## 1
Amino acid sequence: MSHESPSSSIPEAPPPRRNFLAAAAAVATGAVVALTPLAAGLAFFLDPLLKRRPSMRGADAEGYLPVANLTELPDDGTPLRFALSADKLDAWNLFRNQTIGTVYLRKLAGQVIAFNDTCPHLGCKVDYKAATQTFFCPCHASSFKLDGERENLIPPRGMDTLEVKVDLENRVWVKYENFQRGVAAKEVI
Ligand code: FES
């Protein structure tokens, strides 16, 4: 009968290099598991800050907002002023039903023309004067014709037109934009 010596059953210790590699792999796996949700959370947290621009809710995919119904506009082309409203999302804050801007709408031969009512000179609000059928800016006594053309040289350009569309239900939609003031070129800001 033979007996194994007690020392022969003890497993040999792995070489130190193998130990080190196994430990390093375990640490790396642990780091990935721990940091992935952290990175996802950080991205979610920072996303609104990275996209600094406030965004709107209520506009269609092309950025048009519903303003009025075609039947509300006088057939003789008299301009009417309307406010555009939408929900504004700024970083994490949602501001409901905010006025985005105000516009004049004119209906002419079934077509609708929209003007931003901000004066292209220094940004005052332009009024409509029914008596003279002109748009009038009270800040520097400037006026514009019904087609938006300026009647004096204080404003650097005529009133700014906006893109308009009318849907099958006769709703008038306007793509509201603001433009650089005090310059001759119509540049979106
Ligand atoms: S702001 Fe309108 S003319 Fe100056």
Note: DSSP finds one helix and ten strands in the chain.
## 2
Amino acid sequence: MFLPVKRWFAVAFLASAIAISQKAYAADNWKIIKVRGSDYLSVDNISQFYGLPAGMAASGEKVEFETVKNPLEFVSGSREVMINGARSWLCFPVIEQDGKYLVSRTDVAKTIEPLVRPHRVQNVGKVQTVVLDPGHGGYDRGQVSRFGYEKDFALDVARKLRPLLQAKGLRVIMTRESDYFVPLEVRAQIANAARDSIFVSIHFNATNDDPNATGFEIFSFTPRGAPSTSDSAVAPSALSTQPGSTVDAQSMALSACIYHSLLGHLPEFDRGIKRARFAVLRLTKVPAVLIEGGFLTEKGECKLIAQKDWRARLAHAIGVGIESYRALGIKKQPPLLVADYRKQIKSSPTDFVVPDAELKEADTSLMELVGKSKFLPAQQTSTPRASLESAPIVP
Ligand SMILES: [Zn+2]
């Protein structure tokens, strides 16, 4: 007997939710609520399923690591959500109906599940080769600050990161070794050709809209049928909901591991774990993320990025995040979170000592800069300038 299509998806969703759960959850653990033909789950239901307290912030309320109390903190009417102390962006806004807050089924499966339980993702952490992709190169300078070009900063971070990964026994391939341009599809092909590889693209940010915008963000590929984070929110009823690949969940797990390490190691503004259809993310068939390591258009942050010590810290934090991702496949335990890293760093401040007198001096001034830089409320979009991150692919 054939089930109607929508019914089939509901059954498939429940089946996968049960399969990934080690506890024997009955199918009625998920109570699907239909809203204008789309499937939603209540925040209470999600909280019960994961055994995690969930809070609901009012729209416009500031949600940050320092103030957030619950492992799951949703924002009414928004796509913004704090998961284990780091910001993330749902595909669809949380809606309210009959006094209940509802989250789209797509987001429970595609955003919440891999971020809450990355260690349960199928084939997670399977990595022998890390393909490091320093953004831009050659004639494509990327974004520009008065201290230099994005292409040079990105290459330097990758060069600093390579030996850290090699020391952990990982094979490292760089999509470019120096200042030349590599087509985006070639970068993806390099990752696709390597066995058990992950793809980590390194960029710096810029915006024309807001000279005060600062902070980190990380992207993985937008699930099929969903809008990207920078798109205006679209109702799920307007889109087809199709099951994604297992690589999608792995990419989210990789995003979470790297992002928590970045935020845990460096006192930067949390712009969040986001989704985009950047060419390099679309064309890679392996777990892939694109890191935006701060804004070249903000006067404090562009100075940080120009410091080689700061870039060494960035490389270190990304390296720890990659190692954390690999550990998921071995330990099958949740990864360290932003709070864990911050605790670790407090207890062993020597981690932060840079043995170069010249860099130490730069270091003092850069901590001042961090203190002074204006951390703005989270913004959903940074409106990147025309750049190759999102350039269409010419076949
Ligand atoms: Zn870039």
Note: The radius of gyration is 21 Å.
